[in-house]
Amino acid sequence: MMKSWVNSAERIGADLLLDLSEPSEPSAPSGSFRPPGGRRAALIRALREAVRSGRLAPGTRLPPYRSLAADLGVARNTVADAYAELVAEGWLTARQGSGTRVADRARPLGRTQPPGPARTVEGAQPAPPRAAPPRAAPPRPAPPKAPARARGPRHDLRQGAPDASAFPRTAWLASYRRALQQAANEVFGPGDPAGRVELREALTEYLARARGVRTEPGRIVICSGFAHALRLLFGQDRGGGGRRGVLRGPLGVEAYGLGFHRDLLAAAGVRTVPLPLDEDGARVDRLARERGVLLTPAHQFPTGGPLHPERRSAVIDWARARGGVVLEDDYDGEFRYDRKPVGAVQGLDPEHVIFIGSVSKSLSPAVRLGWMVLPERYVDDVLAAKGEREAWASVLDQLGLADFIVSGAYDRHVRRMRQRYRGRRDRLVAALATHAPHIEVTGVAAGLHAVLRLPPGTERATVEAATRRGIALDGLADFRHPQATEADMPVRDGLVVGCATPSEHAYGAALEALCGALPRGDRHGVEGRRR
């Protein structure tokens, strides 16, 4: 049984990224001796530093004792004692019914954005809509019969999409209504290209707390997703006379990644250079004359696994020495199961990292909202590239998402979906262990997909067999950079299997069909490895 970082009993509270390692050591080995009170002292030190640096802003509500204790792997009393001491010192406040919050101390330097409009407390009920008087409707002729639509696959196991049936409709509608009721008249005019300040303030607090991002609202630019961010940074199709980008190539990229992103960069005239991958992530030591590098350090897509701490530090050193920039795609950063959260690389040096995220997987791709956390030197150029007014991201959706985050509904949704997707992952691993033990499964400690390693030379035939069974999935070869060499990056046969897209009632049948499409092992069987 895998040891899960996610505690199935803990369904409440907000995510809070804290580093409890000793200051002189990057990490402590599991099971190592700690002096009495060591974890309590480390927690107090980490919370103090988070408040002092401004990562936890005044008024931020901290997770309940049991929620934070489960996330950090410490005793509940340890968290309770740490909270009590920080309350006594004046760092935190605690009131019945309000929870534990960061005290209203002096704000850190650099936060000069004016506060957004006041928000109502969670649970405030909007006035019910006025019912229209009933009236008889004249009979209508039957509409013409729509042409038959092409049927999709019976089992959709493609990566990259969340469970659409799990969208939090009730909570989203409540946030949207609150946002509309409180919106000033100017909201319904031309939008600020930087994005609504309410959303940028909410993201400043959330990203600092949950992902370790160091920023302020003035350095966040709202966009419609990761692809839109790339277009703003690197420009439009240069062959068609499009706009020149803020950044220029060549750009280092991981040897396995989304071909759509490579195509978008190529259309903008940016040459991409593949970096080999191993068990520690991208080989950033191969960076040379590139001006930037695009990485998925929280969970490498699609092969899985975080970027090793030494390589995180090394890529920052490279950016400083080269005057380059790291583009951090926070892919699957919020969905981890068997390991504690990995903070953003951006936290190591905000002036050399562009942090890019969106709600396409945590919430829905139908909510076309994302964000860029920029070094100060790029803010004006990105805003100039975006134009004088908001033309991409709905202002009303921005206000709805801001309320969704501030009310705590976003945290609750992410934690609930983390539980659901972990269950999906466990069912996939169990099905393969029973019906295809010779298949190795990797990349399952986080994210919405898994990689199934196949015997050499069997990938294409397996994808074809899956298609005949009505299964939609991707072969690993589809994500390989066309210029990756066999010497630097050996070809791997495999499948990229999404765990999130099917509904709950259809997932079992999809797994059964998948196992039937896989190549068979030898007659003795081989025990598959899981990591």
Question: What does this entry look like structurally?
Answer:
With 531 residues, this protein is α/β, with parallel strands linked by helices. Helix content is 32%, strand content 12%. The protein has 13 helices and 17 strands. It has a seven-stranded mixed sheet, with helices on both faces. Strands 13-14-17-16 form a four-stranded antiparallel sheet, covered by helices on one side. It has a two-stranded antiparallel ribbon with strand order 1-2. Helix 5 (197-211) packs across helix 10 and helix 11 packs parallel to helix 13 (504-517). The model is unreliable at 1-12, 24-36, 106-138, 146-150 and 523-531 (pLDDT under 50).
Instruction: Provide the spatial order of strands within the biggest beta sheet.
Output: 4-12-11-10-9-5-6
Distance between the termini: 12 Å
- Which blocks of ≥5 consecutive residues have pLDDT under 50? 1-12, 24-36, 106-138, 146-150, 523-531
Q: What is the helical fraction, as a range of percent?
A: 25-40%
The largest pleated sheet is described as: 7 strands, mixed
Class derived from helix and strand content: alpha/beta
Overall, the morphology is globular
* Strand count: 17
Secondary-structure element order, as H and E? HHHEEEHHEHEHEEEEHEEEHHHEEHEEEH
Overall pLDDT metric: 82
